[in-house]
From TrEMBL:
Family annotation (Pfam families): Sel1 (PF08238)
InterPro entries in the cross-refs: Sel1-like, Sel1_AlgK, TPR-like_helical_dom_sf
Origin species: Peteryoungia aggregata LMG 23059
Top-level taxonomy: Bacteria, Pseudomonadati, Pseudomonadota, Alphaproteobacteria, Hyphomicrobiales
Residue ranges crossing the lipid bilayer per the database entry: none
Coiled-coil zones: none
Protein name: TPR repeat protein
PANTHER family: ERAD-ASSOCIATED E3 UBIQUITIN-PROTEIN LIGASE COMPONENT HRD3, SEL-1-LIKE PROTEIN
Domain of life: Bacteria
PROSITE patterns: PROKAR_LIPOPROTEIN
């Protein structure tokens, strides 16, 4: 009963409001009548009059500033909800011209997006957009003014330059403005300024952005291919990230088969120790070459970079010599250079070559020196290699004292296997208590790391691990 009474009261109120509204044709009456019709629809009753038409009437006939804003905002929202986009934004435009900032910002957003175009752009810009631009945090309006000036819809003489508005938008935190400024600077040839704008906008490093711009210009990924600009960006990238530029140059060369600035890209790649061909392609091309001059031309860029101390170039050239199998020891000095310059992968082929070297083989000396230097520096692989070399003999004669010296070097560098092997050797071959104690120390170190052989040996000797 209570619910029926409440519903009845609502109907009575609605009917009374409708009666009052029907007796008055003012904008306020139309507005109130529209609210009644909307309330009836929400209550599940059929509206007697079109609320949209009533709201439109109140919006169009409003007189005071407050009425214009209130009625047009109400109609704008209603029209949007009912899919009448043009009518909605015309209402928001009237509210904005009456001084409503929220309607103005709404209008600016859809104007920028191309959803709506005022009938008098200059008037709206002067009366709505310029006042909104006084807010220092406003980005959308500034972007819109720049766009309209660029399109010739607004006079730069009256509204200022588009660059000015873009810079203001950028200062207010607009990443879109930064990108536009970057693109303008790039198009004008000022790549360093463009780089500043790009990196501020996307928060990447200058090196990464320069590499990206080189790639997109060479390959035409975002606009038409522009090799000249791509090379300019590549030069900037080389100064910031030589290795990254070399790798990118090689990728671009391969993707374009050298057809887009091939000679330059090959030079950039080689300067960073990267061959424009893959390792298998390099070996294939070298083997297919018919003359020494052809072969020399293929490896010349890598040789020059390796001579200059480039680790990547030295390693790649060494792999080539190892791959063709003609004189593998020609790779020795190159591997030594690569390792000494930080290419850790060079150690394994260095050790393999050294173990193959014959006594007195002069071209193995750079390998021996490099491996010895690495072992002295704590490289376990190098120290174990020397221990094996002196254990079985080869390039150097067998020498048990040297073998144990390098085995201990590896053990002291933390190698578990070497700790176990040294511990067993000392325990079995040294009779003094001091040496026995040292042997147990190495065995315990290996056991604590989980070495099963060390644990088994300690157990066999009745030595507790604690």
């Amino acid at each position: 009963m209570k619910e029926l009474k409440t519903c009845g009261q609502a109907i009575l109120v609605a009917a009374t409001l409708a009666m009052l509204a029907s007796c008055n044709s003012s904008p306020e009456a139309s507005f109130l009548d529209a609210k009644v019709q909307i309330a009836q629809e929400r209550a599940g009753f059929e509206a007697r009059r079109d609320p949209g038409a009533l709201l439109a009437k109140s919006a169009e006939n409003a007189k005071s500033k407050d009425e214009i804003i209130r009625y047009n905002r109400a109609y704008g929202n209603f029209a949007l909800d009912h899919g009448k986009t043009a009518e909605a934004y015309l209402a928001f435009e009237r509210a904005a011209l009456a001084g409503d900032p929220s309607s103005g910002r709404r209008l600016a957003k859809v104007h920028l997006d191309g959803v709506y175009h005022p009938s008098n752009t200059t008037m709206v810009a002067r009366s709505v957009y310029l006042p909104l631009a006084n807010d220092k945090s406003e980005v959308t309006v500034r972007l819109l003014l720049a766009k309209l000036i660029d399109a010739g819809q607004l006079s730069a003489g009256q509204f200022g330059s588009s660059d000015t508005w873009l810079n203001q938008a950028a200062s207010a935190g607009g990443t879109g403005a930064l990108r536009q400024l970057a693109e303008r600077a790039e198009a004008s040839g000022n790549l360093m300024l463009a780089l500043d704008y790009y990196t501020k906008g996307d928060k990447t490093s200058k090196a990464d952005r320069a590499l990206r711009q080189a790639r997109v210009n060479y390959l035409g990924q975002e606009t038409a291919t522009n090799v000249k600009r791509g090379r300019a960006w590549m030069e900037i990238a080389r100064k910031l990230d030589k290795q990254g530029a070399a790798q990118l140059a090689a990728r671009i060369y391969r993707q374009t088969s050298g057809g887009r600035d091939g000679a330059y890209l090959s030079t950039v790649a080689a300067a960073g120790g990267v061959n424009v061909m893959s390792q298998s392609q390099l070996v294939g091309a070298f083997r297919a070459a018919k003359t020494e001059a052809e072969r020399e031309k293929i490896v010349e860029p890598l040789k020059a970079a390796a001579k200059a101390g480039n680790a990547e170039a030295a390693f790649n050239l060494a792999q080539l010599y190892l791959g063709i199998g003609s004189d593998p020891f020609a790779a020795g000095p190159l591997l030594a250079t690569a390792f000494n310059k930080g290419k850790s992968e060079a150690m394994a082929p260095m050790v393999a070559l050294l173990m193959r070297a014959e006594p007195g083989q002069t071209n193995a000396e750079p390998l021996f020196k490099a491996v010895t230097k690495a072992a002295d520096g704590g490289n376990v692989e190098a120290a174990r290699a020397l221990s094996s070399l002196y254990g079985i003999g080869g390039y150097k004669p067998a020498n048990d004292e040297e073998r144990i010296k390098w085995l201990r070097k590896a053990a002291d560098s933390g190698d578990t296997k070497s700790q176990y092997e040294l511990g067993v050797y000392l325990h079995e071959n040294d009779k003094t208590e001091a040496q026995k104690k040292l042997a147990v120390e190495y065995l315990l170190k290996a056991a604590k790391k989980g070495d099963a052989f060390a644990r088994a040996y300690l157990k066999s000797k009745n030595i507790a691990e604690n």
